[in-house]
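HUMAN: Mind making up another protein with tokenized structure?

ASSISTANT:
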Amino acid sequence: MAISRLWIIPSALVGAGAALATTVAMESMKDRARPEPSTRANRSPTSVRTIAPTVAEASSGRLAALEGEVARLRADRTEHASTPSDEPDPQAERARVEAQFSEFERRLLADPVDPSWSGVATESLRSDLSAAAREGEFSLVAVECRTELCRATLQWDSYEAARRTGMHLAERAIPGLNCTKSIWLKEPDHPDAPYSSNLFLDCSEQRAGTTDTIPVTDTIPATAISSGGKS
């Protein structure tokens, strides 16, 4: 019986030791499987070298894109400043005005003469412009009214004299003629030579009955164009 007790005791010790070793081994495996906290001390130098170039590359690309956008905006601003879109082209404007007065001439030649109106209108226009000529440094060369249009040919001693007084003729109220008046003082090749121009009156609205005959004091629609210098 004594031998049996001694054998049982070492067996129990051996079993307890094996259980303890198994427990320690399992805890060690758990510790290895648990993620390691990220600290400055345990960061891998390799991982730092791998991330840094990626961040630098992204920053350089963003910076290049911003620099490109700034350059494009500067170029657009310079282009708009050098060639403003709201400034008219002088040559195109001159061609437009010349075409407008060529059309006045064409319409006048195609306009038939209305005897019931043209005689009275011509005399009214002649009388008013003759009075203006005595004060306006010009002479009245010819006057003609037909059915809807009138034309008065005027002459000055020089282009400069025409610019001083000719522009105001388009604003002049003429008794009995509620017409749109237009004059173009086109710059000549020889400014000091005698200068002539035509004053056109478009009376189509008055003849159609859409406007009434007005007294001298009322305002008349007008177009006065000078192609050189300030009036």
